[in-house]
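fyi for ur records
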Amino acid sequence: MIVISPAKRLSNKACDIILNATTPAFDEEANLLAKQLEKLNVSDLANLMGVSDSIAELNVERFKSWGNIKKEEKRAIFQFEGDVFKHLDARNLDNDDIAYMNQRLRILSGIYGLLRPSDEMNPYRLEMGTKHNFGNSKNLYDFWGDKIANQIKLETKGSILFNLASEEYFSSIKKYTEPLKVIDFKFLTVSGGKERVIGVIAKRARGEMARFLIENRIENTKGIENFSSMGFKFKDFENNTFTFITS
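which gave:
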């Protein structure tokens, strides 16, 4: 199984790829969270999320219209538009890759917990690290507990979990992953004579790696060292972490 983070930017553009829409595993929980969030006004939401009033206003309307928003595209994988998703480029995968992706890729989500690519998703913005009381929970990590990780274990075929998510999102499942073997990835860039992680480049590389794992049907650690997108070259594999480097 491959896990990635969601994106803030969303698209409503319809995709004609055949992929039957499905219902998220935690649809009820998402509806519950949306009901709590719809009580917040623009100022409350702007302060909670640390966003502009215009973005807060958009999301106030999203939560108030939850489940009733008319949109061209409903499936999660074709709505997210961030760097990871642009480089995964699901809209240009062939039908066999799309089917495999739907089995093997999961998107961690603050409001949905876990999304399959085919899951019907209401447009939203809610970071996993949001600090707010949700019912009796002090934050989303507390709200979700071990639910997301247990669902991943239920759906995972095999024992390996490829982590291509950010620390913010992977933290929602990190302490509950056993007995799965977690494989991490690090993408370094040589800049000013030093090797370091550059956020935007690493995000793009995570999308490219997700695509590589899907297209090559990789389900263990064999063959990952052959990844070479964006000029990256394999550096080492230590402590269950693949490190790649580019200049």
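The chain is about 35% helix and 15% strand. thats all i got for now
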